[in-house]
Amino acid sequence: MHLPVLYSEALRELTIKPSGIYIDCTFGRGGHSKGLLQQLGPEGKLLALDRDLDAINSDTAQELFKDPRFELEHCCFSRLQNVVEKRGWMGKVDGILMDFGVSSPQLDNAERGFSFMQDGPLDMRMDCSSGLSAAEWLASVSEQDLVRVLYDYGEERFARRIAAAIVAQRLEAPLVTTKQFVDLLVAVIPFREKHKHPATRSFQAVRIAVNHELDEISAVLGQAVNVLASGGRLVVISFHSLEDRIVKRFIRDESRGKYNPVKLPMQADELAAIRLIKCGKAIKAEAEELARNTRARSAIMRVAERK
Fold first, then answer.
1. In terms of C-beta distances under 8 Å and separation of at least 24 residues, what long-range contacts does 108-117 make, across chains too?
2. Which of 37, 134, 234, 281 is the most buried (most CB within 10 A)?
């Protein structure tokens, strides 16, 4: 079985109760969900979410559907509170797992358009059934907004140069394949970073924009506090600094509460909602996993507990 990054650490930090209720917000290949089910007893429940229909229709999902403890819903994880309310689980969930970023199957399938190493349609949508593809987004976005996305989401130092080239290119013919986009980036960027393909930053930036990834993360974190039971764990795995910054700030702010010195005593809803685990320090992959999986190098796990 393919093991997700920080697999053992994620299951450990969830402190799984055999009869508990758990949510895997990012089903992907189903690795975390399989591990959770192995530790749940007959009374336990697991709800998984994924916005990618390929994940919903995967062989792993079809296998797990046979387990009466398991449910899988096709939706963005920003609908967490909605799907929990529908089941009457508000304030009863014992653990929530979030594993952000692109899954290996998405990167490996050229038709999805996530990889700059293969030629395919310039799509990049997590959910191919809705929203603009990367090609459609690049054909319509303003140059100013494109510069902002490339710089903010990709930390691309040549954002203005790249945006100008894309706008000039689309006047002649639209970018519709990953190879066309890569060729443009290679031609425009004046020099290569060591050990980094020139398309890396732009592909990341466009993918984040097309899928509204950072907005999704901000939305789901706020809902997680309302969903969790007292003592329930929130385990989040991020793969780049933009994601981790949002998670780190959220945990920090929620653990402090909403202190107002002119309004004492504090009301119940103003008290800190969660507490930090392990002093809020990030958990990273051990040397053995790093040697086995290079993707683990950028993985950062943070854990919090509902008060």
1. 109/54, 110/178, 112/54, 113/178, 114/203, 114/207, 115/178, 115/203, 116/178, 116/181, 116/182, 116/197, 116/199, 116/200, 116/203, 117/197
2. 234
CATH class of domain segment(s) 112-211: mainly alpha
Q: What is the pLDDT along the chain (307 residues), one digit of tens a residue?
A: 578 999 999 999 999 999 999 999 999 999 999 999 999 999 999 999 999 999 999 999 999 999 999 999 999 999 999 999 999 999 999 999 999 988 888 988 999 999 999 999 999 999 999 999 999 999 999 999 999 999 999 999 999 999 999 999 999 999 999 999 999 999 999 988 888 999 999 999 999 999 999 999 999 999 999 999 999 999 999 999 999 999 999 999 988 865 555 544 545 445 566 665 644 679 998 988 888 887 788 899 999 999 8
**What are the structural domain ranges in the chain?**
7-105+213-306, 112-211
**CATH code 3.40.50.150 for 7-105+213-306:** yes
The answer to whether the predicted template modeling score (pTM) of the entire model surpasses 0.85 is yes
Cα–Cα distance between 197 and 127 in angstroms, integer?
A: 26
